[in-house]
Structures
1.
Amino acid sequence: MAGIKIARDHQIGSKDARRRVTRIAKSIADRFQVQTEWDENVLFFSRTGVNGRIVVDDDRVLVEADISFLLLAIKPAIESEVRRHLDIEFG
């Protein structure tokens, strides 16, 4: 599986960052039928061909995902969509 790893620093604290990540996850889940589940400050997500997590810290958000070979051709589009949502929520 190919990987995606995107980190975004912030200065809004983990509580507000978690709210923003929840908005991102809802938008992506609705569009791409992704299942999500929080465990503490880690949002796990999955769908056929993609598994990953978003770790929310006091000063950083880290997105990590594994993408199957079958979806490798759209990896740049997935990365672009994640970055776009991070830009909207975290500037």
Note: The longest helix spans residues 13-32.
2.
Amino acid sequence: MNGARQFGQPLSLMFLILLLLGAHMIGMVSVVALSTAEAQVGKPEGLYYKSWAIIIGIENYVLAPPIPGAISDAKKVAEAFRRLGFDEVIELYDKDASSRRLHQLLDDMLPRKVGRMDRLVIFYAGHAGFMQDSDGQERGYLVPFDAQLNHATKSITVEHLKEFTRRTASKHTLLIFDAPVFGWEITVPPELSMEGRTAPESETDRRAVQVISAASKGEASVRLEKSSRFVETLLIGLSGDADLDGNGWLMASELGGYLVRQIETASNGTQRPSSLRIDGDGDTALVEGRRSAFTLGADPQTPSERQE
């Protein structure tokens, strides 16, 4: 009995030590996990925690006519968003933009990975078609690499895209289509308030889903040789020309208005882009200027200037 008792005491003590060590390690893991989760809560230092650009270019279709230059255009857009400082620029060209891959992207990958304080831009260069929904309304759709032009079976419909924007957590989502994609529930973006013109960051605190399409129903996105007029104008706008008030901020609503005006003028009204806000009342910032910048002249220096 004594031997058993003497042998059992060290075992009990060892068990207690191991139990305490295990509890300590669990506590440490919990602290690490908590600190990681807490890092995703609240506002980031800038406007966004992370910026995503998904670039889709389809040139050589399996079942539809080719679009010469579509991939080259898409690569230029991808490089433009890298220059704007986007953290994740994901490029999908031809076979990588199959129906299955695009559905996985919209239904699984992006809803899982994009956070609530993130910015998401999706650019698409490819064919678009249209169909009638159950209410008899005509709705546009994107044509994946392995889908037919006039058959919506494998397509990405406007309704699918709208459902995706409702599921994704991103604060700001901007969809840019070098194609005539229509059938959205239209909400015309309001003009920026005077406060928004002098301090655009107030516009960026609210959720927004915005859409820019290169053409309207029955129109084509004009290609000049092997380059799209829409993409050429988009790249010029992103380089700073679309910042019409010159305050250093480039907002999605500014870019959309710029593209509408420039392309309608260049095409003599035969190609009419659209710029819509389909959800929320915020505005996506594409280029962030100084938060305290005034639109006219330099910052105020004296008390009277600051008061004015």
Note: The chain has one domain: 51-287.
3.
Amino acid sequence: MGINVNVTEQQVLQGDTSIVRKEFEDLVQSSFLIKKFENDVAINFPEIPPLDMIKKLKTEKYRSWFEKLDREVPGVPYFLSQKSNTLLYYLMGNIPFEEKDNSIYFNELSAQRFFREKVVQIKNICLPNNINPQNGIHRLSGLLSGERESLSQSSAPRDEIKQESEKVKKGVAIKDLLDKYGSIAFMNRDRALKLTLVITGIPEKISFVRNSLVKDPRNPQPFFLTSMKTDSSLNEIRSVIFPSISDVEEAIGKFGGVYVQVVTKAEDSSYQSLFESENIFPVETVLEFNAAEEKSAVSPAEEPVPVPVSVKGTAVKDITEKEPASEHTGNIEEKRSDESEEILRLRAENTKLIKKVEQLQKLIETYEEEVHKKQSIKGFFRKFFD
């Protein structure tokens, strides 16, 4: 059962949002309540019929009430009920609109600006509480673009809002790859390389030390090794490469490096973006893979060392906003991945054997030293008894 809040016309004219604000302040204190009352809070105006409400929302007095509520409660569209038309009234109270042929047409620039701002605010409510914000974003974009049935239709900001919806759908391809391989490297539409690195938790700080393209003669499949600091931890994350090595080297030579995105896996198994670079990160080519690096590096199919930091209000992006892997993704052979994993396993066993041999050598040296001492003492006493 949802939450219903009744607001009188006098409260609207006086700019009194206290009763509504109090409800939302209580909701955001609990992850359970945030999830439970998504799209389930209705603000009712019993004294104002729906048709009169549309006319009144063209006046400054009524619009100022909704604008004040928007300033006081960031991300409120996530909670507002679409069925009750509360979300529609809220949009009309914050975005300039025109009424024509029983439809509502929002000002294009204002709608785009409002949509971008609300997407960030909705994510800031959801992601620190491990809640997927996609439904809230879809609901808002659908109503603004007129893709869903409602009291009115909007057509102005369709291009940008539809692109948002399409990008969310395309994110499924990346999710499948991240589930299977962990961190990955692929080519975007501009034929530039992009690393998507998977970490656990939401750190306060993310900084990069270096990106290396590793070509190990003992490993038939090259890979990227990224050294990254999260808070006080240093992670070295290995990314599986999907394009051919020739395409990889061509892209690095053309763009001077790679783009980097850092994501974390939420409780609902979706991936949320914590950081995405706008600039190119340089790459150095490494021809041999150091044993020390091998020990600290993360294998392609596993996640890096967890960084259990939860930061409320951290502005983050949704992985589903990004472009899918390129056509080279479908050309990766399963056999190559299996061989790579087998080689890594054998190399790990080989390292253990080398350590055991070194320990045995030390024992032998100690034994030989003791024997030598005994022989020396025996020779010393022999001088007196011969």
Note: The two ends are 107 Å apart (CA to CA).
4.
Amino acid sequence: MKVLLTGATGYIGKRLLPVLVDAGHEVICCVRDKSRFHPPDSIKNNITIIELDLLKSETLNNIPLDIDGAFYLVHSMSTSSNYEKLELESAINFRKKLNQTKAKHVVYLSGIINNDELSKHLGSRKNVELELRKGTYNCTTLRAGIIIGSGSASFEIIRDIVEKLPVMITPKWLNTKCQPIGVSDVILFLNKTLFNSKTFNESFDIGGPNVLSYKEMLLGFAETRNLKRRIIIVPVMTPRLSSYWLYFVTSTSYKLAVALVNSMKIEVICRDKKLQEILGISPLSYKKSLEKAFSKIRNNEIISSWKDAYVSSGMNINISDFIEVPSYGCLIDSREKKYSNKTLCIEKIWSIGGENGWYYGNWLWTIRGFLDKLSGGVGIRRGRTNNNSINPGDALDFWRVLYANKEEGRLLLFAEMKLPGEAWLEFKIKNGKLYQKATFRPLGLLGRLYWFSVLPFHSFIFQGMIKKLTTHD
């Protein structure tokens, strides 16, 4: 079967893709920017990549008319405060185009909706579902709550909270009940639902076997990690304060924190186990899902991370628009140094960021990340998805990877921190030397004042960093 996969670069899409190929499907991968899509070589012969933007109806003409089915795995949460309108518009454009194809089944992954007073986030998901159901195809909606898996937003937020706070002063919504589900089970449900006539034109809640409060989830996480944690719930935290608390404690963006807090005040519990019975699936427990996630982390097998999506920064860019580093009107810190071992130098570059830090003046990088958080930026907590590989589109602390070619020995990063301008950081191996260049395109006088105010720190950090990268120790 020919299957359209929207959100192919997303957290769920990346994991679903190889499963669909393994099931024998020809997959049409929908991406907004081909340069940040890197499927495994083993499946490239079974996929086609098309560029489209659901908010630009003309780009939907790239969708083949002979598709048999489709997955709708996209949303606009955190890209705009007006995401309700954007999500509905995307759904309308998608539905109109799918009506022109021979698609007989669309599967939509949404959130559990079992409360009359829905949050803005869940209300938007419901509106999308209602719009998709107007199509000439069969539509099935799978509604999930908290998804637990290495790299998922929920997992990483819980991890940030538990591993960094021995004592937690928390909002009262931690008493809210939910029904978490492992990401592997979500993928299984999605795959088995497609083209199953028993699921046509129905909506199903999917969740694990455990109904837990968020407090119980945090304590369960702590137990899995052999950590002793104490949680004190206070009733005085308003939604705004709760959002700030989540934003500063975790690696989430503020817009995402607001959406999550509003959703976390509402119970998300499955209505029944009907789909489990239809498909013969027995989801893992919360504890087993955690253990599976940490197994993936230990073995460095994280396939996808929410942090690599642009929602983690609130930016919405095309990599191709920034791949050419400007020079006119820019301020530049350029350094070069002979390396003692080319292979080791490249390995050090490809290990930069995350737990390894930036090799020199890490305390200054940490302070810069904290200041970025205070100003509404991403901070430095995002780290990196995989310790061994870097791909264009990946998040790398408060940078975004624009170009990464290990054989060529070139890595180009674009700053997603809050700045009065635009910044690039480039590492390039050439003629026996490492060339390291920081480029800043200032926005007016404020941008220039910023650059010269941090110049002494740049001199300290960048000189130390290139020395560390080129020496064999």
Note: The CA atoms of residues 253 and 312 lie 6 Å apart.
